[in-house]
Design goal:
Shape: globular
Distance between the termini: 62 Å
Strand order of the largest sheet: 3-4-5-9
Order of helices and strands: HEEHEEEHHHHEEEE
Length: 234
Amino acid sequence: MEMFGIKFNRLVAATAVLALCCGASFAAGPKKMGMHKMTKVSVKKTNLVHKGKAAKIEQPEQNLSEEELFALALESKNISKDGNTLTDTRDGKTYKVEIRGDKAWMKNNLSYSLSTPKQCLLEDEGNCKKFGRFYSHKEASKACPNGWHLPNDGEWRDYQKDQSKLDWNNLGKGGCKDWDGYCEGDNTGHYWSASKVKKNTARSWEFRSMAHSINRTDESLSKGLYVRCVADLR
């Protein structure tokens, strides 16, 4: 009986090793069958006990199409299924969105409140609703919703390359908050980028709606400019 017990234990151990090896073979197998072209798979983890330790093996659960991946990306950024609207879960405000390549851009200026009516043009809350809020560069760097960010200079350069696609009446309005007053608000809109070039300044973009022109400048970090947030979808 003791010999039978030893043989039985060896048989159980051999079976466990065989299962572990075969599992690895099956995981590698689909590649040889042409399944290496899968875009992406979600995985589930299975625990196996091997020599007293838990061994984790990842197994494909299902393939995801490009459309499904895109839908998941929109959902993760709180964008509607049609890709047109962002909902900021911090305050429930909504913003129009446009998809450009693998990025989503806000089509309205951010209006998330970080302080007082001083963030508004002429300190009028009505202008905050109309144009969005002014932010110092420090405020702008942390003002975007989760999963979104302040665009850097390169992202702004890409965004404005095809100027026929720009919403000039939307971009070129609201001015800016200057040292002792406000920039002209009827025909200009000023926006922060995340990029810093010179000391105590950051790169900004000015859009002029009447002239359909763009100025790229370096502004004091304390100046009040608008924010357009951008999200990576891939």
